[in-house]
Write a structure and sequence with these properties.
By secondary structure, the protein is mainly beta. The chain has helices spanning about 5-25, 45-55, 130-135, and strands at about 25, 30, 60-65, 70, 75, 85-90, 90-95, 105-110, 115-120, 120-125, 145-150, 155-160, 165, 170-175, 180-185, 185-190, 200, 205-210, 215, 220-225, 230-235, 235, 245, 255-270, 280-290, 295-300, 310-320, 330, 335-340. It has one domain (about 30-345): Single-stranded right-handed beta-helix, Pectin lyase-like (Pectate Lyase C-like), CATH 2.160.20. Bound molecules: 2-acetamido-2-deoxy-beta-D-glucopyranose (2 copies).
Length: about 350
């Protein structure tokens, strides 16, 4: 009986323990973070629960039950072996100090197919301190604070019911995604918050934003380069700077934007529009109502020499709430096809 026997005994003992703990942590495909030791700070528990769920060959769900938790920066990465859901019923609080992050995000879903993010919970970015330090209202190349949620290369996904609050930067960034739906989603931040775009989309195809409520300090939805087939339906935007399409051409190699369909939306307090520097085609705004605090309620600004065509406005009923005359629309380098109600003359 030598050293060898002793060490093999230890190995089998620890293996048994590991089996026992996995069996306890998941039941019927549900991986509950509180069974992974998640109490106040759930960063490690969520990371471990995600890893186990992602390795499951059957559809799985990671559950964050109701309660209030701290969560540090995390990346929830795929590819996973089967469909995976993260159900957040709790309130997740980000670290207040923006210096505790690297890489521009708080929570990042990366390379996941068949992802569902669901639940009555909230991602609270606690952005107040960061906004007070932000130089972004003066400097377009300002330091990027972390965004609440990034979806990078997510395919066939659904985000349902979740709330994102007070992000330090954009609330949601969608990059390289295909077939991703946001439904009954809520974005909430004060009108004074800096650079807090609701949902920013770039280089993605087949994005659906449905019955969603966005109130924030910057664009409710901003559509960046390489976006194709974006459907925005039943969205309420306000406070916020409306829905912006195009790109300022800050980066090399930007791709055209095409197939943007905005329908049945309510917008209040719009203010928008530096000219887009990418090619834009097939954009329609239909059945848009609401009020604006500035007299220019519709602003379509394209750059001269860059194609900007097949733009359609139908049933635009936006009122100006101030006293500088009637609501107006402004179009530069674009001739939209207008039909139905058009409450703002000019274009
Ligand atoms: C898009 O994703 C949803 C949700 O996963 C899925 O149900 C649907 O089949 C996908 N659509 C296509 C065309 O793949
Ligand atoms: C338009 O959107 C509102 C929500 O803002 C919804 O209640 C209504 O059913 C939608 N109408 C149509 C025709 O889709």
């Amino acid at each position: 009986m030598g050293l060898k026997a002793v060490s093999s005994a230890i190995i089998s003992f620890s293996l048994l323990l590991w089996l026992a703990s996995t069996a306890k942590a998941q039941s019927n495909g549900v991986f509950d973070v509180t069974k992974y030791g998640g109490k106040e700070d759930i960063t490690e528990a969520l990371t471990n629960a995600w890893k186990d769920a992602c390795a499951s060959t059957n559809p799985s769900k990671v559950l964050i039950p109701s309660g209030t938790y701290s969560l540090r920066q995390v990346t929830l990465a795929g590819p996973c072996k089967a469909a995976i859901e993260l159900q957040v019923d709790g309130i997740l609080k980000a670290p207040v100090d923006p210096d505790q992050f690297s890489g521009g995000h708080w929570v990042d879903f990366s390379h996941v197919d068949q992802l569902t993010l669901s639940g009555s919970g909230t991602f609270d970015g606690q952005g107040n301190v960061a906004w007070s330090k932000s130089t972004c209202s003066k400097d377009k190349n300002c330091e990027g604070f972390p965004m609440n949620i990034r979806f990078d290369f997510v395919t066939n996904g659904l985000v349902r019911d979740i709330t994102t609050r007070d992000s330090k930067n954009f609330h949601v960034n969608v990059l390289g995604c295909k077939n991703l739906t946001f439904q009954h989603f809520t974005v909430s931040a004060p009108a004074e918050s800096i650079n807090t775009d609701g949902i920013h989309i770039g280089r993605s195809t087949g994005i659906y934003i449905i019955d969603t409520n966005i109130g924030t300090g910057d664009d409710c939805i901003s559509v960046g380069d390489g976006t194709e087939e974006l459907h925005v339906t039943g969205v309420t935007c306000g406070p916020g700077h409306g829905i912006s399409v195009g790109s300022l051409g800050r980066y090399p190699d930007e791709k055209p934007v095409s197939g943007i369909f905005v329908k049945n939306c309510t917008i209040s307090n719009t203010a928008n529009g530096a000219p887009s520097k990418v090619k834009i085609s097939d954009v329609s705004f239909k059945n848009i109502r609401g009020t604006s605090a500035t007299p220019v309620v519709v602003k379509l600004a394209c750059s001269s020499g860059i194609p900007c065509d097949k733009v359609e406005l139908a049933d635009i009923n936006l009122a100006y709430s101030g006293s500088e005359g009637p609501a107006k629309s402004q179009c530069s380098n674009v001739k939209p096809v207008i039909s139905g109600i058009m409450s703002a003359s000019g274009c």
